TrEMBL record:
EC class name: transferase
Record-stated family: Belongs to the UDP-glycosyltransferase family.
Protein source organism: Urochloa decumbens
Lineage: Eukaryota, Viridiplantae, Streptophyta, Embryophyta, Tracheophyta
The protein's name: Glycosyltransferase
GO function terms (MF aspect): glycosyltransferase activity
Name of a matching Pfam family: UDPGT
Amino acid sequence: MVDKEEVRPQHNSHHFLLVAYGVQSHINPGRVLAHRLTRLGIDGSVLATLSIPVASYRRMFPDATMAETATDGIISYIPCSDGVDDGSWPKDANDRALRRRASSENLSAIVARFADRGQPPATLLAINYHYFHGYNELITSHATDPTYKVCLPGLSCPLQIGNFPSFLIDMSGSEMSKAIIELFQELFKYIDQLRPKVLLNTFDELEANVIREMKKHFDVFTVGPMVGSSTEARIHLFKHDNVDKKRYMEWLQAHPEKSAVYVSFGSVTKNSKRQMDEIIGGLRQCGRPYLLVVRKDGLEDDDENNHNLEDTQTQLGMVVEWCDQLEVLSHSAVGCFVSHCGWNSTIEAVVSGVPVIGVPNMLDQLTNIYLIEEEWGIGIKGERNNDGVVTGTELARCIELVMGESPKAMAIRERSKALKEIAQASVNAGGSAEKNLRDFIKTIQVNDTFCMDGIMSVHKAIAEN
């Protein structure tokens, strides 16, 4: 996987540098996009490099040095330092400023290095865009009223404050929210100045109205769903070996079609011991087979020391620390996905045709469950009690509502199946994703000088930050 030779472009080739945040749910879609770009240039005319934070690069390529360029045979990978390189969040404003400066300098150096060598979700996008273009005061002034409705251009109906991304309505002053607000503020400043082309990990039929609205503000290309096939190799930042995989895949194979509940809260979300106990209790209460993913670092504080995962193993259920989510969702035995509703997990559920029970916690998850339940009709939200906990009784109720034989359950399953077919059509050869990606490359190829000017403009903007 490690290649010490720099990839040299052919004459008239195009090289794309993709920059991904260092979590699995960002790196995998970035990798899929990079692969799809290169495959459009079957004569080697399209090259791609995925830049990832040093901490993630070390986990993916433990034998590589920071001076080496890694490759998977199709695309290259290059590390970018934030000055700390331990994968942690900034602790305060000074820490954020130091990391931003280091990241800017290092990314600027990467861009300059390529330039010297001659290598030149739509609803969430809309919400964030409009927040920074006239709606921030309205949204923040009602941040404590989750039922207050805000009408935003492009959205089919008013959006309740409680369904906005958590960082836009966070009045606690958390460092995470501050950091994300600053990031988006800077992002939209550059978007307004440079009018770049924007690639969206979605497809036209999924968010038609809001995509149409966003095209009024900048060039938008829907190139999703950015999900590889279940048989393709995927990047895993957590321990995952063939022994574990054989165990849970054989377990799934032993169960009837659409009988099992799959439960995973992603690579970032942490749950309290109380919440996990309720989830396990709800799974046992519903009486259906379940595959539960619980990372050792996925429990808050020191709860993992007080929570013996072996105690949750029963004839009914299996507990694993990590799994290949797309392959699990693609298995015929899975009939329901209990999820935190990150965008990557949401898109994978759509592509797999699996109904969702959402247990959102933060960030875009609050908006994604709104789309799942209200806009697309492929799942429901598990409601939290006054202590912020989804009880076992509530979870069991939701599972039965989705997997039972009521008219609503059947409608959810039918809609999930229909949306899966639309999603798959979009990524098939000649589908909308390929067409839009080709259109994007054509706009780049129209004027190579414009492309190089664009690279140097971004380079200059980064360097001056």
